[in-house]
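Can anyone check this?
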Amino acid sequence: MAIAVQNITSEQQSVNRLRAVPVRLRMDAWQAATVKEQLVAFLLGLGARLNIKLIGYLPFSELALIALFPLLLSRYAATGAIKRAAWALTLLAVWFGGQVFSDIYRSTDPSLAARGWARIIVFSTCIPFFVDFMRRGCYQKILWFTIGLVPSFALSAFIFRSGVHEGRERVYGVSEINWETHWGGVFGGIVLILCLYLYGRSRVACYSLAAGMGAYQIFRGSRATGGIGIFSVALTIAVNTLIGRDWFARVRRRLSFPKRAILLVVILVVGFGTISAYSYAASRGMLGDKSLRKFMSQSATRFGLIGGGRPGFVCGLLAVSESPWIGYGSWPKDETELMKRTCDLLGVKYEKPSVRDYPVIPAHSQILIAWVEAGFVGIFFWIYLLITFFRATYARLEDEKRLRWYITYMASFFIWNILFSPISARIETSMMLGIVLNQMSPTRRENNVSRSVPVLGQ
């Protein structure tokens, strides 16, 4: 009898310990970040856009995380960061293998191959860091990272310049510093800080500011950034409505399949409505003469508004259609004049690159760049990111009250960036993945632990 009682007592203690785990996990999201952690977040933001030329152009923040990786590896394993980032790290390893094989097969110049490999290595070191770093105090760390990112973005056109600014100067003879290439990003960062502060206090103020920022960005020529700002507001309102007004009481319930289907329809309708509204306003000159000329030239092509404005994207599709399995290698040369054939296909004028330009195969898409350079195995990591960020737009979040709009906005931004932008934002993408994995996973872990707990008497 004494042994039986002792066994029941031990089992009850084990159950209590298991049931206590989700409580701690739930509280992590709401724990305030320490002063040191907020300072680290600020410095990471400050160094995110200031580059030094080593193997290509590497931001100071990425160099710091690469240097710290061996020292923090044991911590990543102890806190479960490696386990939670296992899918991402595995798919990065697959991408790396495809990149190495393609570079060897294509006899890529070693200096260019090193740049292609460095891109994957940076992701592999940054992702575990942010999965661990964003376990608690997420809101404060995001806020301070963004506060640091704004001056970093502003200064990056003048000191410690990135490859984007250097590349434009190399192609056009002067570094283009205008609203679309630079100041629009600075303005967007300032608005992002204000919206982060406002959302938990006044959703109406946050929505108004974000939608106003989107409209102004479109008026100044930054169509994608502006459209995402307006789209994120509409999607956030739709998600909050579907979840229910009493969101906190229902935050642990799953979104049913009918609601997911409705949400998908809402996303498509909102996206189509945003594009239609832009087309209507631009075609009638309501956004200015510059937007009118841009709209008329791009919508006249056979690929429509999105494809017509991105011949590099169509060029990337043409490249992978001719070699879908084996990549062209890191930073591949456009030896078969793919861009010229693309312009002929689109019916637009082909501008031959200047002598200073390095004629690489353009792709104008992160996922297409990986496919062009590493072959089809390069796309799996980006597909994983697309799926994860899409889920983040409707999944329950640990800090729903303060981060719902931010995560919806940033997830939408990175989905667009992965599909239609050639400009890499490795540290920001890694941070977003770390945020999403931490904000979505505690609920799943709690459900798994609850199911694994044995019930006494069974």
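Reply from J.R.: I decoded it. The two ends are 19 Å apart (CA to CA).
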